[in-house]
Design a protein that fits this description.
- The structure holds 2 protein chains of 2 kinds.
- By secondary structure, chain A is of the alpha+beta class.
- Helix content of chain A is about 20%, strand content about 40%.
- In chain A, strands 1, 2, 3, 4, 5, 6, 7 and 8 form an 8-stranded mixed beta sheet that branches. In chain A, strands 10-17-18-20-24 form a 5-stranded mixed barrel. Chain A has a 4-stranded antiparallel beta sheet with strand order 13-12-11-16.
- In chain A, helix 1 packs across helix 2 and helix 3 packs parallel to helix 5.
- Chain B is of the alpha+beta class.
- Helix content of chain B is about 25%, strand content about 40%.
- Chain B has a 6-stranded antiparallel beta sheet with strand order 3-2-1-4-5-6. Chain B has a 5-stranded mixed beta barrel with strand order 7-12-13-15-17.
- Chain B starts with 5 loop residues before the first helix and ends with a strand.
- Classes of the chains: A alpha+beta, B alpha+beta.
Amino acid sequence: MRDLVFAAINAALVKGARYADARIVDSREQKVSVSDGRVEAIESGESFGIGVRVIADGSWGFASSAAVTTEAAEQLGRQAVAIARASALVAGAPVNLADVGTFDTRWDGPCEVDPFAVSLEEKIALLLEADKAMHAEDAVKLTKSHMGFFRAHKCFGSSEGSYIEQTYTESGGGITAVAVAGGEVLTRSYPNSHGGNWLQGGYEVIRGFDLAGHAPRVAEEAAALLSAAPCPPGVTDLIIDGSQLGLQVHESIGHPTELDRVLGDEAAFAGTSFLGVRDLGQLRYGSEHVTVTADATVAGSIGSFGFDDEGVPAQRDHLITGGTLTGFLTSRESARAISRTSNGCMRADGWNRIPLIRMTTVSLEPGEWSLDDLIADTDDGLYVETNSSWSIDDKRLNFQFACEIGWEIKDGKRTRMVKNPNYTGITPKFWNSCDAVCSRDHWKVWGLPNCGKGEPMQVAHVAHGASPARFRGIQVGVGR
Amino acid sequence: MSRLTADQARQLAARVVALTQADAAEVVVVSADDSLTRFAENRIHQNVTETDTRISVRAVLGDRQGVASTNRLDEASLAGCCAAAVAAASAAPADPAFPGLPSPVPVQTPVRAAEAAAGFGPEQRAEVALGIVRQCSSRLIQAAGGVASTLQTVAIGNSLGVDVGMETTSVRATVLAQTDRAGSGWASFHGPDPTGLVADALGDEAATLARRSEYPADLEPGSYTVVLAPEAVADIVDFLGYLGFSARSFEEGRSFLSGNLEKRIMSELVTISDNACAPESFGLVFDYEGMPKRRVPLIENGVATGVVTDSYWAARTGRANTGHALPAPNAFGPMTLDLMMDAGETTLDELIGSVERGVYVTRFHYVNAEDPVPVTLTGMTRDGTFLIEDGELATPLKNQRFTQGAVAALNAVKGVTRDRAFFDVMLGSALVPGLLIDGWEFTGQTG
């Protein structure tokens, strides 16, 4: 692979590129899903190819192909230079990159039990058991149980002399019960919605979820939601569980701190950010209880790696420190624009995509509360779990989230269940209303395998550590 | 490695079907050249191209099935892919509901690959970007957007004799114009080739709207009459397709159509169909099982009239196969990919002129569903939101959040434009007009 990578790079340099890197990615995946007692999908796939990224005439060019031969790699190097020269027809300031060291090394993620070596029969049996347990609840009319596995082997090289090989394995899954009656559809999921939870690791990850063990509770709660009261509209104190708070961090801290968004590169598609470079070290993003890190070294997180796709080593960095904005997620190009070095957030979702700034494990650092104490400390409020819908504006200010389930809190006790709870807010105002974060005992890493960004669309595997937290005076029950 | 022609893709599909040691087999070949030039801050910052050919094999053993896919096209890899599909089928439990692969049905494949799209290379894309940027930079406005082309070949073959293939092309361009006074404008183009893509006009449209929308004001949350430009309508129609027009969601009671067929559920001004064969369309005319896509009336003058099916849901429900299969294995059920809303008899200006006080929306951003049956959606307006007063666009407004049932909204349609436009949506494309709607619920605004 090393020879192929440098064949592409050298061809680009001969054609006049000032910088070139190349990535060969060999990936495989497997998905198994069961719905209503029926095996809905058994699917495997593989993808193999090479992408070459160059700077020529001060502009970027990128070409990629599934043909991975010396001749094809050299042709891609030349094609990428030609594309960069076309980019230069509408050029800005010449592209410059922040410095990074050169590395010749490899990195391997954790994997105890190779998930591709576990029999399909065992996987199907596990899912059917969970599926059957959910259907024990009569009101549950639709069930889904699924698991998936992904493994990638990447070979990265750059004209600066780095050559890095990395291999990692991801495993994930979950269950969903849907209760249907009287024109209402109510859903409960475990361990999370929208694809379940995902971690770096092998089949031990799936066994650790104990999907069948949680299936009865999931089904019972879905059924109970049918007769639950709608979430009453109003302004109240809101306690958000860790999984939903992970998504809240994702949408209202992770994306707005991506420096390419801040600098305008994603304006036409996903949008920009309410943040400016000038806000660094100045903006009061949240209360003193809000400290947020971006950490690509969290063991077992799908946001972890040895090096990003620009060859920058994995790092832990602070985005928000005690409520103040102290960092951005950066690339080599964007970091140079703010006179910093890259904190290693560039990742591509395959050989055929350029790396973009992506979240790693972006986490709300734990506080000191227990969840029981936090509820007991709340006179009148709402506790919500598990995301069902999310939306946020193009500057990441106005958001609205809906959750699968909620419970009213009265006089320090969790009381009546409510269905379809939602809440809305403005990002800095919301984070400044945070007055309590639960402890590390409640803190968990939530893998999010479907973060969309960029054109052509790229789907990144990112993660968020979070424990439940309380927010004062939040508008809930919008449109209910 | 080059993109395959339709004949080459069909031959590859047939060869892989023959390689698959199963009772029956289906192979989908997708071969594409995708290119995109993106610009922001008035300069090209991303310029990419990709060539890939991917095959997917569905192996059938009795009533069990498994799927495997690869983009490695050497003989050993193709054989390995077929073996993986067979192994998956072997592991699957029996599925008595599986009706088997569909038998061939004649498909008329029109020529939908435009030669002009094939010659739309990086220099041509840069020329378009340059024309757009000049319109903005000359007015001290920042332009962002993209110019993209896709040349795609899709072929499907199965062991019962299905053998179809087709090439399609598409060209897309988008422009976001932003001023330093919080003005924001948008324009877009989507067609089978670059004919009709006039860079200067597109840049001018977005830049003019950006200047017009400067210094946006607040709006009190509440119920408003709205005029939605076609791109905003496309998002609504897209979610109707995703959540409600499938035979699967209908049968499972998750659709607004469940229990409502032949009933009037929307304004009589609303007629929606799925029609890949319309002369305006430029996508595939067969589905991912190789079945011809039929025109399916979904809403006719406000009355619910149908749902779309694939071979599995046609057999399960006793309905005709309308040709709306997604690639196997398909956990979503059949889906609409070519939604069309019928045109009305008025213009967007006439709709605005008929409103005493309301809101004009250029497009929406980040729309998502909160409740599937009424298709309750929330999202933001973006890139040109205006108060309408006395029949004219008046004060520009900050981006507004809405929380609104889509079915209820389409039951409150009071006017439909005769001009329609194509848009890329979450599921395929949508050809839609602009709409006048009463009682649209705005529930907040950006900070």
